[in-house]
Each structure stands twice: as C-alpha cells, then as structure tokens.
Amino acid sequence: MSELSASPTPSSPTPRANAKPARLVLRAAAAIVVAALGFCAYAAAFPADVPEKVGEVVENLTGANPHPVVLQRLPVAPLSAMAQLGKQLFFDPTLSASGRQSCASCHSPDHAYGPPNGLDVQKGGLAMTQQGYRPPPSLMYLYRQPNFSIGPDAGENDDAPTVAQQASAAANVVKSQKTAGGASTSVEMVPQGGLFWDGRADTLQQQAYGPLLNPVEMANTSVDTVADKLKNAPYAKRFTELFGSRIFDDRKLTVAEAMFAISRYQVEDPSFHPYNSKYDRWLEGRAHLSQAELHGLRLFNDPDKANCAGCHLSKPGKDGLPPMFTDYQYEALGVPRNTKLAQNKDPKFFDLGVCGPFRSDFKDQTQYCGMFLTPTLRNSSTRTVFFHNGIYHNLDDVMAFYNERNTDPGKFYPHGADGKIDKYNDIPPQFQKNVDVTDAPFDRKFGDKPAMTADEIRDIEAFLKTLNDDPPASN
Ligand code: HEC
Ligand code: HEC
Fold first, then answer.
1. Buried-most residue among 25, 95, 109, 316 (CB within 10 A)?
2. Is the model's pLDDT at 34 over the cut of 70?
3. Closest listed ligand to the CA of 325
4. Ligand 2 surroundings by CB, under 6 angstroms
5. CA 402 to CA 170: how far, in whole Å?
6. Which atom of ligand 1 is nearest to the CA of 388?
7. Which atom of ligand 1 is nearest to the CA of 262?
8. From the alpha carbon of 387, which atom of ligand 2 is closest?
9. Which CATH topology does 165-192+278-475 take?
10. Are the folds of 81-142+198-272 and 165-192+278-475 the same?
C-alpha cells in the first residue's frame, strides 16, 4: 500500500516517473503468476490434498486426477507348474483336428487375447474352412467374471432357487433403468455373469472344452481323441510329474486336468491382467489425460449424453478393484443382422444369446431373447471386430450405431419388402420388445437430435484408447 500511495501525482508527469507504476503492476502480476503456478504444481503433485472445486480446476488445467486411488492388482509371482503346462497347451496347434489351430490362433496375445484379424468370425474345423458363429472375445481380465446368475445374488444361501426358477420369477419384472453413476431404479432381475457371449459356461476350465470339441473351431470329435494327443505330446512327461504316473489311464481325467491347467495359465499369467492402461495410471495419479480424453471420459460418464458407464462401469470399486468397464449384465441392443455369416443364410436362424440356440436352458424364457453379455471395453479399441455377430469393424461405426440407432435407423437397417425400415432385423418381431430403448443414448426417438455430436464422439473414442494396456513385453 505504502509503495502505491508513493506513486507520482498526475501533476508531475515525466516519462520516467510514469514507468514506475507500470513496473509495479508488472511485478504484482508476476507475483500472482508465480503463486498460481506454484499452486498448480503443488495441486498437480498432490491432487488429493486440494478441495473438490479446486480439484476440478486442476483436472481441467492439467488433466491430472484430483482424487487418485490405490488400485488392487493380483500379486505377480512366477507361474506355477500347472500354469506353465497350461501355457504350453494354450499355444499348441496339434490339439486341433487341423493341426493348425491353437487357443492363441483366435485369442492372440498380441491382440489383447482377441482375434488377430478383422474377420467377422474366425474360421476353423478340420480343413480350417468352416466359419465360426461369433467373434472371439478378449480373454483378458476373465478371472473377475462372476458365475452366471439371474436377479439378486443368491450368495451362500443353501436354499437358493435354481437359475430357472429365478428366471420365471423375473419374467414379469419391469426392466430397471441403467444410468451412469446412478443407483438402479428397481431390484435387478437380469441375467449376469458367465463366460461366452451368452454366459453358458461358468468356469474357465469348463469353458475350454467348448473350442476343443466345437466342429467349427478346433474340431476334435471326442474327449478321448484329445486325451490321446496329450499322451503323445512332447510335454506328456509334465502330466505324469504333476498328476501321477497313471494319469493317462483315465482319459476324461487327463483332459479335465489339461483344461484346469489352461485356466490356471489365464488366471496366473500377468499378461492377462496387467492394469497398466493410461486410464489405470490416471486413476492412480500417475498420468495426465489430454483435454480430448478428459472430455471423452466426462461424456462417457454423463447419464444424459453417452451414458456408456451405465453398463460399462468406469469407477474403481471401494475395495480398490480397478473398474472392469462392464457390469457383467446382459442387454439386447438390437445390432443389425450380419448377412455375411454362414448361419444367417437361413432366414429362420436367429442367434438370440441367452435364450438360445447355443444354450438351451432358457429357450422358454423369451424375455431374454436377443440379450448378450456386456463386454469389457478394456483394450476394445485394439479390436477390429465388434459386437456378438461381428457386424462392425471400427469404433466410428459402433459409435454411430449407439448415437443414431433410434434417431435415424435407416442408416443401419435394410428396408423390408413393404418399404419400411426393418429395424432390429436380427431379432424376430415378437421379441423386439426386449431391445433397450430406455437407457441413454438409446432413449432418443426417431427424428430427435442424437445424444452426441461428431466432436463428442471423437473425444469418447480418444478416451476409449486410454483403456488399452501396454502390449506384453514378450510372450
Ligand atoms: C476358432 C477360434 C477359436 C479357438 C481356436 C478358440 N476360441 Fe475361445 N472363443 C472363440 C469364440 C468365437 C468365442 C465366443 C463364443 C461364444 O460366445 O459362443 C470364444 C470364447 C472363449 C472364452 C470366453 C470368453 C468370454 O469373454 O466369455 C474363453 C475363456 C475362451 N474362448 C478360451 C479359449 C481356449 C482356452 C481355447 C483353446 C482350448 C480357445 N478359446 C480356442 C473362438 C475360439
Ligand atoms: C444399456 C447398456 C449399454 C450401454 C449404455 C452402452 N453399452 Fe456398449 N455394449 C453393451 C452390450 C450389451 C454390448 C454387446 C452387445 C452385442 O454384441 O449384441 C456392448 C458392446 C459394446 C462394444 C463392442 C465391444 C466388443 O468387444 O465387441 C463397444 C465398443 C461398446 N459397447 C462401447 C460403448 C460405448 C462407447 C457406449 C457409450 C456411447 C456404450 N457402449 C454404451 C451394453 C451397453
């Protein structure tokens, strides 16, 4: 203050005297800038210590997470002997009838254990010419996949109703709304958990029989043929070491142990669950998101806009479990029919997910027709095939579908014989009421403004890329 009041009066206007207040203002401004920079640096370095509102400012300015967390990862330990055997099995093409296909052929370690190419579905079978039914999902993070169930978790209750009883009980319950960040609007009575696009396998061990015996995949004709291959494999000695000298006397047991070994490999090997994406590092306060990524994250979480987090959960659990970007539930999104699939040459064939035909236990629970598992979005932008029927091959097309399925359906579905748009054409008309039209972005109506602009879509895609793990250093 005293310095300011000592400033020259207008009555003595000399050029040199005028320079003094200017210098003072400059000095004051510099001091403010230095203080602000210092505060920003502090806030960026210790974002957890700053109050909520300031945290938001810091996030906006620096892209740092104002509320970093400690993420719980699986401890990294050397593979057990069981998992090492599983690894050999996973990469062994001689276990297929063609001799040319291993698990890794469709679940490539260099492609987040997903398909190594952009084919709608992979080919397999004895001559490697037969088309599969669905695109291979990524095998990453499956150790956290819960078992298949319907409705509220039955927990440890011995008298828990069977899954079929739960399904009938749920048949008339109105579907609850899924809002990013919000609590569910009613008791969840929806299918959840399980492996495969329709949840028909519960454990990784049980699941592995599927491809080995599937005629369009590894195409072995029986468990016995697989057992004979294992007995003659270069690693046969490992079986006797691990399971005893008489293991090969029981062929069913031989294969069961092999499947268990493969499951141990997927659970133990860190390459299946590294949690080292940019987003994980951001959650932990070790990385900054770009403005586009940050904006994309906010749209992803915004219940009125993209609402992706309504189903692809984006926040870490209270226990520090990293977010899996799926709620493990099933939804009918009504993606267009893929006419390039061999099975779809038959106009009467429909892959309806939970209600069949690849699982048969829910064929009468038609309220689940058309429902498929919500996949994780971790590493999804490394994929070149999307959805349960492989209809799309890039994220732009996936995003356009989410954005405009209702507002401009003619973009996605063909016109029927009557000239009308054949909406939801991969689900028979009587089951089309199962399709989700209540959760954003699907709540928009025909002709409405879509939930997202082109710029917003670009930013969401930028955010999705932050969910890609670093590729494994070596296999
Ligand atoms: C010809 C390609 C192919 C081969 C070979 C193959 N799979 Fe798959 N895998 C798929 C397809 C397709 C699916 C999805 C099938 C479905 O949903 O009905 C799948 C699903 C899975 C799943 C469930 C993933 C999830 O998110 O639910 C696991 C686990 C799996 N495979 C493991 C294996 C193992 C282990 C092997 C080797 C014994 C193997 N796969 C061989 C194509 C293949
Ligand atoms: C109402 C629940 C729900 C909402 C909301 C939702 N998804 Fe999905 N998502 C699903 C389901 C279910 C599937 C699988 C559908 C199928 O294959 O038929 C899926 C599949 C995907 C896939 C394909 C992944 C793969 O491996 O094939 C991507 C990518 C995706 N969603 C991104 C998004 C984005 C981005 C948003 C926000 C704009 C979003 N989802 C909103 C439920 C949802």
1. 95
2. no
3. 2
4. 178, 306-308, 310-312, 331, 333, 335, 372, 374-375, 377, 380, 383, 386-388, 398, 402, 436, 439, 441, 460
5. 27
6. 17
7. 35
8. 17
9. Cytochrome Bc1 Complex; Chain D, domain 2 (1.10.760)
10. yes
Protein residue whose Cα sits closest to atom 40 of ligand 2: 308
Location of structure tokens 């052929």: 105
Domain ranges of the chain: 1-10+17-74, 81-142+198-272, 165-192+278-475
Residues 6+ apart with CB under 8 A from 438: 175, 177
* Dist. CA 136 → ligand 1 center (Å): 6
pLDDT at residue 159 is higher than 80: no
Class of domain 81-142+198-272: mainly alpha
Model confidence at 3: pLDDT above 50: no
Instruction: Give one DSSP letter per residue of 55-82, joined into a string.
Output: HHHHHHHH---SS--PPP-PPP-PPPHH
- Which of 474, 469, 90 has the alpha carbon at shortest distance from 265? 90
pLDDT tens digits along 163-176? 555 555 555 444 56
pLDDT at position 264 is 96
Longest dimension (CA), the chain: 112
Compute the average pLDDT of residues 251-266. 96
Give the distance (Å) from ligand 2 centre to CA of residue 25. 55
Q: Is the predicted pLDDT of residue 66 greater than 50, yes or no?
A: yes
Q: Which of 262, 145, 260 is nearest to 193 (CA)?
A: 145
Tell me the CA–centroid distance for residue 292 and ligand 2, in Å: 21
Residue bearing the CA closest to ligand 2, atom 25: 386
Question: pLDDT tens for residues 328-367?
Answer: 999 999 999 999 999 999 999 999 999 999 999 999 999 9
